[in-house]
User: Fold this.
Amino acid sequence: MDLRVLAELKEYLTVKKHTPGRLKVKVNLAIRNHPKLTQLQHAAKGGSSVIKKTNLNIFTQTLTVDYDSTVLPFEALQELLSSDDQDRIAQLATELMDSVGV
Assistant:
């Protein structure tokens, strides 16, 4: 999963629950019209071992992401998800992508 896509779509996502290795977010239905939605839907198929599984359910309006918390630190991802500073979000996404070697 390219975390820059997650950062870009952040305005459509609200964290419901985040524990190390699993992220569950509420998805605003307006995301259906975003051109990067398919990248989010198929994030686990990107060849990266960081994201183990994704499940986007438009009917329940939830996205669940199972990830390897030994490679993608919980604290760093949590900061990316909770920040309101767009520049900081972009910086964190890029740093995280670099650190996991994607």
Q: What stands out?
A: The beta strands are 13-19, 22-27, 51-57, 62-67. Residues 86-99 form the longest helix (14 residues). Helices lie at 3-8, 37-41, 74-82, 86-99.
